[in-house]
Design a protein that fits this description.
Layout (H helix, E strand, L loop, with lengths): L10 H10 L4 E4 L2 E4 L5 H17 L5 E5 L3 E4 L4 E3 L3 E5 L11 E2 L4 E5 L5 H5 L1 H6 L7 E5 L6 E6 L5 E6 L5 E4 L4 E4 H4 L12
Parallel strand pairs: 4-7, 8-9
Antiparallel strand pairs: 1-2, 1-5, 3-6, 4-5, 6-8, 9-10, 10-11, 12-13
Length: 195
């Protein structure tokens, strides 16, 4: 995401921009932000995750979507494109638009150097306002590390850390699991000077 916001836009102007632009934009309370392209590793991780979830969701009332489906966080006036979204039950649409949903069960973000602080901070703070959200995964692309945040009955969030490729992330809310070795399949991590 670009650090420099675009000019102030009304919501209608934002939707017109998205319909004609070659890049996606996040919209937050009248300000539009460019969403920059993702690395090869980032895209491969997202494809590996969707590839694991899609067959597990067959015959279940949930579906997984890639980053082209826009999410509206109504309480925060935020429109954004998570790397992957799982929705259970009928999709609920925002603003009468079939390209913008409001009811994710699971959100997944692959961390990038330019967005990591935002994904961990303000974005997660906004995501926590979504009543239907039960699970949030933040996935590193520069090493094996997945953070799984799980909403508890008291609305607190429990963190589970995964750092070994032999581990499996259990996602009981959607009756699925994600194997870390499959998430990171074909990812080549850069070796440091001491490696």
């Amino acid at each position: 995401m670009s650090a420099v916001p675009q000019q102030y836009l009304s919501l209608d102007e934002y939707f017109r921009l998205e319909e004609t632009s070659e890049i996606k934009h996040e919209y937050y309370r009248g300000t539009s932000y460019n969403m920059t392209g993702a690395s090869e590793a980032h895209n491969l991780i997202v494809a590996n995750i969707i590839g694991q979830l899609n067959p597990q969701l067959i015959d279940k009332p949930c579906r997984v979507y890639p980053s082209d489906l826009r999410l509206k966080v109504e309480a925060a006036e935020l429109y954004t494109y998570p790397d992957a979204i799982v929705i259970c039950g009928p999709s609920q649409y925002a603003d009468g638009r079939k390209d913008t949903v409001t009811n994710p069960t699971l959100l997944i973000e692959v961390l990038s150097p330019g967005t990591e602080n935002y994904d961990r901070g303000a974005k997660f703070q906004n995501y926590r306002m979504i009543d239907t959200l039960h699970d949030y995964l933040m996935i590193a692309q520069d090493g094996v590390h997945v953070e799984h945040y799980i909403r508890q009955d008291n609305h607190a969030w429990l963190l589970r850390d995964f750092t070994d490729v032999s581990q499996v992330i259990d996602l009981p809310t959607i009756c699925c699991s994600l194997a870390l070795d499959a998430i990171y399949r074909n990812i080549l991590f850069e070796q440091g000077p001491d490696a």
